[in-house]
Design goal:
Strand order of the largest sheet: 2-1-8-7-6-5-4-3
Helix content: 40-55%
Order of helices and strands: HEHEHHEHEHEHHEHEHEHH
Structural class: alpha/beta
Oligomer: single chain
């Protein structure tokens, strides 16, 4: 099953656009995890077990694992997800962006070492920086396009005078991803929930691509506006929430609280589609 097929099935089975981000910060865990050797794995698997029937995808951020020398726990976590929720794709949030043999090794890391179903990449070194990943025909690749951070304005809004129509850089990335670069049929784009107007522009350029949209929840993105900007009949929408779900409670009820927050978010996103018929 290809990544896009997995998305379709997860959306159908769980009636969800919610991507649960797994960004473990041990200092925010309930005190019951203090001193545990595999605290990151145990905490994240608890979140997965509590929410996997509410999610369209899980997105572990590799830096949160690597910073604590927990790459082995990340690999075990992904295997756990595939065991308890085999229909839910795993997106490795790595934002790699190198070329040549190094890029090939990063592709092996994402798709063979960790067995992720998709990965996030920075496309700013050009097509040869993403080409090694596209050789994994059924794996998804999300390219940074219009990111949710304020500093994204430094480059992403610059206009390209030598391209037809003088598109912004992020608009041009969307053009390439929709057409010339999508050799595997599994490309998607990362666009931030903090810019719903620009999500609409990206969606108009790339109507068929999956959009991974971070910034809902702790970062302040408007979930309803985000859905209305990005939803189409063709392209999937994955709206990520991490901290708001993971740390809904730091008490013994953290699993139940995470589930409650995930359910609220899923239902809020679904409600936004009722009067949104692009």
């Amino acid at each position: 099953m290809s990544f896009t097929q997995m998305l379709e099935k997860a959306h159908s089975d769980n009636h969800s656009m919610l991507c649960v981000g797994l960004d473990p910060e041990p200092s925010k865990f309930p005190t019951s995890f203090n001193g545990k050797k595999d605290a990151i794995f145990d905490f994240c698997t608890s979140i997965v077990d509590a929410t996997h029937d509410l999610a369209i995808a899980f997105k572990p951020q590799i830096a949160y694992f690597a910073a604590h020398q927990a790459e082995d726990q990340l690999a075990r976590l992904i295997r756990h997800i595939k065991r308890v929720a085999p229909h839910i794709p795993v997106i490795l949030d790595a934002k790699r962006g190198d070329i040549g043999a190094t890029s090939q090794q990063y592709a092996v890391e994402a798709f063979e070492r960790y067995e992720a179903d998709a990965v996030t990449l920075s496309p700013f070194m050009g097509f040869d920086s993403i080409e090694p990943y596209l050789k994994y025909k059924n794996k998804g690749v999300f390219l940074l396009c219009r990111t949710s951070n304020k500093g994204g304005d430094d480059f992403q809004n610059l206009r390209l005078a030598d391209k037809p129509g003088n598109p912004t850089l992020y608009e041009y990335i969307a053009q390439l991803a929709e057409r010339d670069w999508n050799t595997s049929g599994q490309l998607g784009l990362v666009v931030g929930a903090t810019y719903p107007t620009e999500i609409s522009k990206v969606r108009a350029i790339a109507p068929s691509l999956p959009l991974l949209i971070p910034g809902v929840g702790a970062q302040g993105g408007d979930a309803v506006a985000t859905v209305r900007a990005g939803r189409t009949k063709r392209g999937a929408v994955l709206i990520n929430s991490s901290r708001a779900i993971l740390y809904a409670s730091q008490g013994s009820d953290f699993e139940a609280s995470a589930r409650t927050k995930a359910l609220e978010t899923r239902d809020l996103l679904n409600a936004a589609t009722l009067d949104n018929h692009p």
